[in-house]
Amino acid sequence: MAFDILFDMETSDPDDALTLCLLATHPAVTLRAVTVTPGTLAQVGMVRHLLARAGRSDVPVGARNPESQKESLSAFHTKWLGPLPPAAPDALAHEVLARALRRFPEATLLTGAPLQNLRLLLEHHPDVHLHRWVAQGGFAGDNVVPPEHRLPKFAGLRTCPTFNFNGDPKGALLALSSDRVGRRELVSKNVTHGLAYDGAFHERMRPLASATPGLALIFEAMERYLAQRPEGKLLHDPLAACAAIDPGIVTWAQVDVVRERGEWGSEPAQGTRTFISVAMDPERFFRTFVGLGPLHDPPPAPR
Predict the structure, then answer these.
(1) Is the sign of the CA dihedral 49, 51, 56, 57 positive or negative?
(2) Is 50 left (phi over 0), alpha (psi -120 to 50) or beta?
(3) Which of 148, 171, 205, 301 is most buried (CB neighbours < 10 A)?
């Protein structure tokens, strides 16, 4: 049975748009809301365009700062989709999230962006509780990750900068400490840097790409991307989305998250309700990505 998910995104690279397409029509998910940071009219226009092409124009879209003039769309989005008309959001992002959580209190929030919208939700809506938060962000170092699962690029590290958490450290620390956030699952860069959508992945996708409108959009986007960058694209946010759908993709460790001199790390702990990725199963990821399963309900809160 499909479960409810809310997606908070940005558009500085293709990752979030691919994740939006995936969630819009995935058979295990009902996408209930999308929020964007900073939330320019150009960003909202792109999000509405993709939702429409996926047949999900019903999904409400929120923006943190729709008046922002910041150039927030990566060049890839324009090359892929062409010029798109700007569009207004339904409401401010924290209001869209609050409305969705009041209506769907068991929904999972997936964040693939700096955490301003989650921070504003917690600051402005004290009646709202978040059952489960899955974040693309954070870092687990050698003190948490077993030797056989360490990526060479992070060898010897206990802390590391991470884009989404450093985009709003106050929001990250608030969400990690709030008693109104139930279970926290961090799909961290020590794992996401080990998974890429490359030519081999694309060819494996080819016979499956018509299964849903979302997969068709992803295949279309990556045809263009790989033509310019055949080495492929790291799948940070899509991995987080698939771990939200099937937590068994990832091996989790319960931790306390620490921040030191602008870098993030983790310390093994119990009773924190905060779990971080230390390894992942690429085959199980692929099957979840394309909707073949195994698909599981979100795990219960730890005892």
Answers:
(1) negative
(2) alpha
(3) 171
Instruction: Sort 23 into a burial class: Cβ within 10 Å, 0-12 / 13-18 / 19+.
Output: buried
Q: What is the mean pLDDT of residues 109-122?
A: 98
- Whether pTM > 0.85 for this model: the answer is yes
- Please give the pLDDT value at position 190: 97
pLDDT of residue 297: 44
By C-alpha distance, which of 95, 47, 80, 87 is closest to 66? 87
User: Number of H helices and number of E strands within the chain?
Assistant: 12, 13
**Tokens 């992002």 belong to residue:** 93
Strand partners for 9: 36
Q: What is the DSSP letter of 90?
A: S
Angle at 173 between CA 180 and CA 129, to 5 degrees: 15
Residue of 10, 1, 256, 220 lying closest to 114 (CA atoms): 10
Token readout for 162 is: 């991470």
3-state secondary structure of 75: helix
Pairing of strands 274-280, 181-187: parallel
- Cα–Cα distance between 256 and 86 in angstroms, integer? 41
SS3 string, 201-251, reads HHHHHHHHCCCCHHHHHHHHHHHHHHHHCCCCEECHHHHHHHHHHCHHHEE
Task: With CA atoms as reference, report the closest residue to 142 among 65, 283, 253.
Answer: 253
The Cα-based distances of 170 to 90, 115, 138, 176 in angstroms read 26, 8, 14, 10
Query: Which 8-state DSSP code applies to residue 148?
Result: G
Q: What CATH superfamily classification does 3-289 receive?
A: Ribonucleoside hydrolase-like (3.90.245.10)
Query: Any idea what the Cα angle at residue 271 is, between residues 267 and 276, rounded to 5°?
Result: 45
Compute the CA torsion angle 72, 76, 82, 84 (nearest 10 deg). Answer: -20
CA-to-CA distance for 17 and 189, rounded, in angstroms? Answer: 19
